[in-house]
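Record 1 of the preview.
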Amino acid sequence: MARFKDKTLEERKKFAQSILAKYPDKFPVIIESNKDTDLPMHKFIVPQDLTVGQLLYMIRKRTKLNEQEALYVFFKNSLLNTNTLMTEVYRDYKDVDGILYGVYAKENTFGGLC
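->
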């Protein structure tokens, strides 16, 4: 599966700069799945006042998860509090190209049927 970071640094910087110029109160976020899932990559233009929990809700709406599956998003291998503002996450975890990358994983929270 192709990853967004497979593009050159210059291409990724140009993408981020175009988003930041067009939407000065938002920033680009790329969420990709870990190797254990088949969930698709998602690109978001995130408002500064969005929380991690609200981003999780947006991702969940776009994916086909069972209600028993929990969704987790990691930024640089860190699982953050759902009340954390995405502005803080962007400030602390963005890549050198100006894009915030996250990895999401799903987990069966209630176990399987016997």
